[in-house]
Amino acid sequence: MASRKTMLEEIINEINKKEKALDDSLKTDDFGTFSKLLEERFELLKQLEPFKTETSVKNIIENILKKDSERSKSIEEKMKKIKGDQFNVQVSKKAMKKGYLKVEESLSRHKINKSG
C-alpha cells in the first residue's frame, strides 16, 4: 500500500511540474513547448486512472480543469491580438508598396539635380 501511495505522489508531483511549465510557456508565448507539455501531461493523467477514487486525484483534476479554462481564455486573447497585428502588418505592407511605387515613378519622371 505504501508503494501505491508513493507512486501516486510521484505522478502528482510530475503533473504539478508540468502545470508550472505550462504556465511559464504560455507567459512567454512558446506555443510549441506548450503543446508538447499538454501531451506529456495527458500521459501522466492517464497514469492516474487506477487512483481515480482518491480525493487528491479528484482535487488535482478539478484544479487542472479550472486552470485550463483560464489558459483557454488567455490563448483566445493572444490569438485576437495576433490577428490584429497580422492585419496591421498587411495594411502597412500595402501602404509601403504603394508609397514606394509612387516615389519610384516620381524619380523616374523627374531628373534629380544632384549638383544642388
Automatic annotation (TrEMBL):
<protein>
    <recommendedName>
        <fullName>Flagellar protein FliT</fullName>
    </recommendedName>
</protein>
<dbReference type="InterPro" id="IPR037285">
    <property type="entry name" value="TM0693-like_sf"/>
</dbReference>
